[in-house]
Amino acid sequence: MKMIFAILHSEDVDETVEELNKHEYWVTKLSTIGGFLKAKNVTLVIGTEDEKVSGALKILQECAGLRKSVKYTMPSMSSGNIGPGAGAMIPIDTKVGGCTVFVLDVDQYEKF
Ligand code: 2BA
Q1: What pLDDT digit, counting tens, does each position of 18-68 carry?
Q2: How far is the CA of 82 from the centre of ligand 1 (A)?
Q3: What SS3 state is found at 8?
Q4: Calpha distance 67→96 (Å, rounded)
Q5: Does ligand 1 have an atom closer than 6 angstroms to the CB of 98?
Q6: Does the C-beta of 37 come closer than 6 Å to ligand 1?
Q7: Which pLDDT value is given to residue 75?
Q8: Long-range contacts at 62-66 (CB < 8 A, ≥ 24 apart)
Q9: Is residue 37 within 8 Å of residue 10, measured between CB atoms?
Q10: For the residues 74-101, what does the mean pLDDT come to?
Q11: How is 75-89 classified by DSSP, letter by letter?
């Protein structure tokens, strides 16, 4: 038996928990705050059998891992862009998400 602690961005939590539940993982959500940036994040506590750990890690990586995203922004007027297409949105590559995971051994597991 293992205990997985996964610290992830709040915006990735709903999809991640839904996917974990769909694959029959038990999950507890804790509202947490990063010690360095003091920003809110969420820590998921997942108790599971050893053989199911890799499946949980795969879901965490897919739903909450660091990934690329394209944001669109308006060009600034001050850039002197006044020709045709001046109002067109500019795509900017950004990175979103990111998840820190700890996997611990569990000595005993009971439900009373
Ligand atoms: P990440 O490394 O992606 O960490 C995101 C959040 O995950 C952290 O929030 C913290 O809540 C948790 N976390 C990460 N590694 C941990 C660990 N070994 N033990 C316990 N919790 C852990 P924050 O502490 O607010 O950190 C936000 C981001 O600031 C970090 O992103 C990292 O890029 C940077 N950072 C954190 N501590 C730092 C430090 N001492 N020096 C420089 N940069 C730091």
Answers
A1: 999 999 999 999 999 999 999 999 999 999 999 999 999 999 999 999 999
A2: 43
A3: strand
A4: 6
A5: yes
A6: yes
A7: 75
A8: 62/19, 63/12, 63/15, 63/16, 63/19, 64/6, 64/8, 64/9, 64/12, 64/13, 64/16, 64/97, 64/98, 64/99, 65/97, 65/98, 65/99, 66/95, 66/96, 66/97, 66/98, 66/99
A9: no
A10: 78
A11: PPGGGT--STTTTPP
- How far apart are the C-alpha atoms of 2 and 108, rounded to whole Å? 10
Average pLDDT estimate for 94-105? 95
Percent of the chain with pLDDT over 90: 73
pLDDT beyond 70 at 80: no
Q: How far apart are CA 44 and CA 23, in angstroms?
A: 15
Q: Ligand 1, atom 11: nearest CA belongs to which residue? A: 34
| Confidence (pTM) | 0.86
Domains of the chain: 2-79+87-105 (3.30.70.120)
